[in-house]
Amino acid sequence: MPAMSETASRPQTPRLPLAGLRVVELGHYIAAPFATRLLADLGAEVIKVEPPEGDPVRGWGSAVNGNAVWFSVHGRNKLSVTLDLKSAEGKEKVRKLVAVSDALVENFRPGQLERYGLGPADLHAVNPRLVIARISGYGQDGPYRDKPAFGAIGEAMGGLRHLTANPGQAELPPPRCGVSISDDLAGMYAAMGLVAACWQVKGDPAAKGRVIDVDLVGSVFSLMEGMLPEYGLFGWVRQPQGAAIQTAAPTNTYPCADGKWLCIAGNSDLIFRRLMAAIGRPEAAAEPRFGNNALRCENVAELDAMIAAWTRTLPAAEAEAILEAAEVPCSRLYDMADCAGDPHFRAREMVMPVADPLIGEVLHPAAPFRFDGVSPREMVRWTGPAAGAHNEQVFRMLEEAKP
């Protein structure tokens, strides 16, 4: 792969594992850009191809001077170029990019890339070793292939929304988890598949490029633990459980005096004894009906009432401190203010202030990877750029790469 000229890319940390991997992103909204953000955080050189007006997600959420705050993270560590894929010039430049790249990620509806004349056959004609990761709602084949889908549909059809309902509240729709979880999951799986395919191609000089097919529904469905074999063997359909876990007790989320909630996991025998002592009910740990996890599950309503009676007398932070001192796993339900101010988040740089030339100083989440010798801050090499910020540099590189 030809090296990008120094003016086209800011210096990359050579200790990052994907340094030297070049990825073209034909992504919009969430799934494909999330996949490439992970790859870019790992050191890959990601060239994000946007329409002339920019990725539609640039118009989502809060903004500073017309620049979407989310895009500071969503587009970080990427080079941005703008192209009209409906034009002959735009298609030709994509082909030139593909010729000098290792992989491509896209999340158009199935068939759209082919209609642009940029399907896998077209791209492999330019670069036979190219790895192509395709993300869609339902996959590249099957009877639902051509149906439109967004993240909420992946949650609904993949089985997750059925589980997020609260028992006894059938009149209310099961809530979404608050983020675009199916897009993010599909992005993670696409990134994983891309790296695996690139490893295979790199290790075999005769290898051809691979096409990876990831869909939103299948990504959510993959998280359904043992539910499918349980249904196949016994006809069981797991039902919503609310905040509790049916197979472990006591594990639940309890109300506190200040209106906040405390999650407590006291289900092992040893921890259960410590929990009962901490809430002033040591005698309960010796009662036969609570003698092991199976018995506690049978009598969980009584246990939950006992614990809730204690948590309701204390603010969440105070109850948490008492249980932590007793080595009982627990946590308040954090909102973003809690995350941003927590000393552990700050010490591990999970939350870090970053200078963004478009919107000023902003808090960024760390990349979800830790590598020895590389600090989390080093992995955030630059923030999401303006649309087309790297047109001149990248297109000059393509001209210099001509045989």
TrEMBL record:
Pfam families on file: CoA_transf_3 (PF02515)
Superkingdom of origin organism: Bacteria
Transmembrane segments: none
Keywords noted in UniProt: Transferase
GO molecular-function terms, A-Z: transferase activity
Signal peptide start and end residues: none
The keyword Transferase is annotated on this UniProt entry: yes
Entry annotated with the keyword Transferase: yes
Name of this protein: CoA transferase
Provenance organism: Roseicella aquatilis
Lineage, uppermost ranks: Bacteria, Pseudomonadati, Pseudomonadota, Alphaproteobacteria, Acetobacterales
